Amino acid sequence: MFDQHEFFLNRELSWLKFNSRVLQEADDKNKPLLDRLRFIGIVSSNLDEFFMIRVAGLKHQKESGINKTDNSGLTVIEQLDRIAGFSHQQVQVQYRYLKRILSLLEEQDIQFCDIHDLTDKNREWLYDYFLNTVYPVTTPMAVDASHPFPFLASRGLNLAVLLEKEKGEMKTAVVPVPTVLPRIVEIPGQGAKKCFVFLETIIQEYCHHLFHGYRIKEVAPFRITRNADLSIAEEEAVDLLAEVEKSLQQRRKGQPVRLEIGKRANRAIKDFVVGALKLEEQDIYEINGPLDSSVFLKFADLPGYDQLRYQPITPQISADLLDCEELFAAIREKDVLLHHPYESFEPVVNFVLQGATDPKVLAIKQTLYRVGGNSAIVRALAEAAQNGKQVTVLVELKARFDEENNILWARRLEEAGCHVIYGLVGLKTHAKCTLVVRRESYGIKRYVHVGTGNYNDFTAKTYTDIGLFTANDQIGADASAFFNLLSGYSDPPIWNKFIVAPLGLREKLIQLIDQEIQGAENGRPAYIIAKMNSLLDREIIIKLYEASTKGVKIDLIIRGICVLRPGLPGVSENITVRSVVGRFLEHSRIFYFANGGDYSIFLSSADWMPRNLNERVELMVPVRDDDHKERIKAILALILNDNQKAHIMKSDGSYRKAERRSKAINSQEKLYEMAVAANKVEELTIEQRLKPSYRH
Fold first, then answer.
1. Which helix (H) or strand (E) holds 35?
2. Which of 89, 319, 526, 637 is the most buried (most CB within 10 A)?
3. pLDDT in tens, 674-690
């Protein structure tokens, strides 16, 4: 009944609409200028990944002769056509916003200069910089019968050069812009002003030094995006780590899927590059501004301009730890809830760090998906192994675009004496779980941390996630069984509290929705709130449609992709969908089920997507403590009332900003205010408040 094409939206177009909501943040006049510029960079970075994975996958299907329809009824070719139309429009808007922001930055004495407008002294400095710094690391590459078009790295910036010798003889060449130098170069000696020039502009200005004996007819910047989806034969792999490393090499050589080229490039230059790459017209993006605006992600941290950025927040001490003298004792007494980034991630780091040095701790087990560059947690795990603890770490090597980083950490952990495992064949391990086993006066005690986000102390400052510490014996037993399942040949146990994908999470979600349907049919309170990053799973969506028609009220808070259509007569009239896009990346997965008044709340690592429910190891756990349940319920209510950063989905899949009929509510700002208000002793550091017994 509910499985018809017209009841579903297209996944790729839904994602592009999410990226448009991100882009709107760059045009928010209430946002500090450099943070608006940062969102320009985020949009570019998002688009890069979208083309490298999603568009590349569709192109591969097309080339293989596969033109099947998706849930919304679009064929592969139709999806590619619509993606191209939407993406071209989005990029035009992006660069219109960028031009506006750069103009406003000039009023703040931050300027991207035209070389021809510089003083003679500045031009002399720039010329010297080219000769002594840029020229030695720049390699011009001829393209002719004896020099085929070179292989160019994905996302690398290049210059296409059209040259002329005597008698009108024309030549072509490519100059890769060196990645070993800063992309944005500051010209010194400008006093209170800041003057910047792009590296490719410098090379373009002095390009004739690279081609003696030729006249430069035309120079145009261009950039290639390649297929980056890894193909790993796990079943045949003898060494998964080596297989992933091999696949990473293949990623760099993937087929081109997009060309970005300067809008001013003439037809000859454009034909030269397009002909070499064999791309279709819809794959060519003419850029009216600097290519690869993801460079502004780092530039937005320009020193000395704090007034043009958000004031930094100070993550608070969790209210559950305010009077804590020792972390394990606090967890033993009562479950501890952490809400990042409003509350500090430091207790999670301390959990592992104290375990590493506590003589009572026997073992530490942890899953790692996206770890980060300079990970305090990984260092603590290595120290624990060196201190003689039994340390088992599951490092997910297939975490997309973090593979190289995770390989590095896996090797370091092995060198330190940790037992490193890479998960189950055919499945990514996306669950977030840490187990610390401690010998105490009355016997062995297990302490567990589970969360909705990665063990990454850097992203914990910008992603909203919820973590839970517990010493509950049933959860402790589940955690032990869970790690045994990952590391050995153990059959799945009968779980006490854990709900695990792909071993029952889907079935549990269906059961919970059915429970609400039954409640509605019996006249009891029936209400679902589901907060996640993406909603894609067809079976779950059909079940939500059924619940809606039975009278269950359903509020979905979905940051990114959502292919469910709310508000369809006779199908989804009781369903609302909203997306909150703000200063912090909404990342927590929280599920509320009214259950006739005896409501349940679950935290999970899983979105409601086929890959999460079928192809990944995921965890969902119930929140047991009544105070914590009430707190999470209040968090969800606040987000549902956000009228500053919330976007409401309409039945056709488009979004409108939430109406502001009442008092302005920015849920992220309010949640931080609540964290500060709950923190009674702000002058002490996290370390001072925790008073750990076994810190360095």
1. helix 33-49
2. 526
3. 999 988 554 445 444 44
Strand partners, 592: 529, 601
Question: Position of tokens 């014996």?
Answer: 473
Cβ neighbours for 556, distance < 8 A, ≥ 6 positions apart: 529, 530, 531, 535, 562, 564, 566, 575, 576, 577, 578
Domains and CATH numbers, the chain: 5-308 (3.30.1840.10), 319-497+684-690 (3.30.870.10), 501-665 (3.30.870.10)
Confirm whether pTM is higher than 0.85.
yes
The three-state (H, E, C) secondary structure of 437-474, written as one string: EEEECCEEEEEEEEECCCCCCCHHHCEEEEEEEECCHH
Q: What's the CA gap between 329 and 323, in Å, rounded?
A: 11
The answer to whether 391 touches 415, Cβ cutoff 8 Å, is no
For residue 507, give both structure tokens: 């079935």
Coil, strand or helix: which one is 530? Answer: strand
* Residue type (1 letter), 326: E
Is 212 one of the catalytic residues?
Answer: no
Q: What is Dmax (Cα atoms) for the chain?
A: 94
Torsion angle, alpha carbons of 338, 342, 346, 351, to 10: 0
Distance separating alpha carbons of residues 242 and 644, to the nearest angstrom: 48
DSSP H or E segment with residue 159: strand 157-164
Are the beta carbons of 227 and 49 closer than 8 angstroms? no
Q: Which two tokens stand for residue 171?
A: 């030549």
Q: Count other Cβ atoms within 10 Å, centred on residue 446.
A: 20
Closest to 221 (Cα-Cα) out of 167, 259, 165: 259
Across 28-156, where does the E strand assignment appear? Answer: 110-112, 141-143
Is residue 238 over pLDDT 60? no
Of 260, 258, 250, 255, residue with least CA distance to 227: 255
Tokens of 319: 């209210």
Q: Which helix (H) or strand (E) holds 541?
A: helix 538-549
Q: Is 213 left (phi over 0), alpha (psi -120 to 50) or beta?
A: left
Q: Give the separation between CA 127 and CA 77, rounded to whole angstroms.
A: 49
Question: Would the pLDDT of 280 be above 60?
Answer: yes
> Among residues 339, 340, 430, 647, which one is catalytic?
430
Query: CA-to-CA distance for 487 and 512, rounded, in angstroms?
Result: 30
| Integer Cα distance of 372 and 397 in angstroms | 13
Instruction: Report the SS3 class of residue 185.
Output: strand
